[in-house]
Amino acid sequence: MKKLLPILLALMGTGAGVGAGLFLMPPPDAPDEAADPCGDMTAKTAMAEEKPDTTPREYVKLNNQFVVPIVLSGRVTSLVVLSLSLEVSTGVQERVFSVEPKLRDGFLQVLFDHANSGGFEGSFTNVTTMETLRRSLHEVAGRVLGDIVSDVLITDIARQDV
User: Fold this and answer.
1) For labeling, which of 25, 65, 141, 159 is most exposed (least CB within 10 Å)?
2) What pTM value is reported for the model?
3) How far apart are CA 162 and CA 160, in angstroms?
């Protein structure tokens, strides 16, 4: 009887495992998530392919850097230096340079407002802060140049404490 008990327990355990597997098996019409853990990629790929940007673009680097003073308690404590470029439709580089003084004025106003609100303090290069700054710069570029500007690129940025 001592040798029969382990065999009976093994058979009962195997039977319970097979029964649980059959009971918990997904229905045949359910998608097999193990085979495709990301879901139906054809629908996601089709959505991504619906809006290809085929508009030819060029990049216009603004001639001079932007220098923004950081003022605390009435004195300059730091300087932030930025270089900006614009992503624009092809063939409008001369138009950008013809309105560069107006662009620089608008960009400087945005940069000064950003500095005065503490945007260049602490971890000033984090994603959220930089995205807010880019969005504000893009709004100014859109007001000055219209829809020929698709993006404003911050190509260099540095803060120097004085």
Assistant:
1) 25
2) 0.66
3) 6
